[in-house]
Amino acid sequence: MADHQALSAVFFLLLVPHVAWMAMAMPSSTLLHDKCELYAAGDRPSYDYCIRTLRVDSASAAADERGLAAMAIRIARSTAVATAAKIARLQRGETVPARRDGLAACAAEYAAAVRRLGRAARDVSRSRGAAGARELREAQTLLAEVTGAPELCDVAFEVAGGQGSPLDAADRELDVVVGLASDILPTRPMATTKP
């Protein structure tokens, strides 16, 4: 009987931290699901994309609204960096002048997108208290500017010779992840907590 009580006590002690951790993680996990439901607006593939994209960062389960937006922006920045690297590889091998011009225009757009997304992530991370509204507006503006980068890249290829962009899939991916970041971006700064 004493062994059974001791075993029960050990089980209880092991269970308490797990239950406490679950209670702390649940609201943020719910926030992740709530934000993805709003983003998807009833479209299951969009919801799955949102969850899959944000869960790439293991901190997403415990993140607040601002943290989720910053994660989405960092993921968008990584997408833009990868596309910029692809553009650089294509530029090295391109011999047709019109396509080189198109790639040069795309390189400029994606370099600007990388800078803007970096600034947007910093703005969201700093958006606390009364001054935070300005940072959130700036982040929204930067995300809106980045949303146009893929289309400008496509237009550059059309102008350069009427050929389609070799970056269509990458362009669509950037627009989708920037759209996700825009949709989950908080509209108001978080209140600052006093120590």
Short description:
This protein is mainly alpha-helical.
Provide tags for this entry.
195 residues; mainly alpha; 0% strand; enzyme inhibitor activity; signal; Pectinesterase inhibitor domain-containing protein
Describe the structure.
- Helix 4 packs antiparallel against helix 5, helix 4 packs antiparallel against helix 6 and helix 5 packs antiparallel against helix 7.
- This protein folds into two domains: 63 residues, no CATH class; 132 residues, Invertase/pectin methylesterase inhibitor family protein (Butyryl-CoA Dehydrogenase, subunit A, domain 3, Up-down Bundle).
- The chain is mostly helical and 195 residues long.
- The termini are far apart.
- The chain has seven helices and no strands.
- Keywords: Disulfide bond, Signal.
- Pfam families: PMEI (PF04043).
Portion in beta strands = under 5%
Total number of domains: 2
What is the count of DSSP helices, taking H or I runs of 4+ residues? 7
Report the mean per-residue pLDDT as an integer: 80
- Note the main sheet: none
CATH classification, class level of the largest domain: Mainly Alpha
Report the end-to-end length measured between terminal Cα atoms: 49 Å
Proportion of residues in helical segments: over 70%
Reported by name, the CATH topology of the largest domain is Butyryl-CoA Dehydrogenase, subunit A, domain 3
The low-confidence parts are 6-27
Tell me what the CATH architecture of the largest domain is: Up-down Bundle
How many strand elements? 0
The CATH superfamily name of the largest domain is: Invertase/pectin methylesterase inhibitor family protein
SSE pattern, N- to C-terminal: HHHHHHH
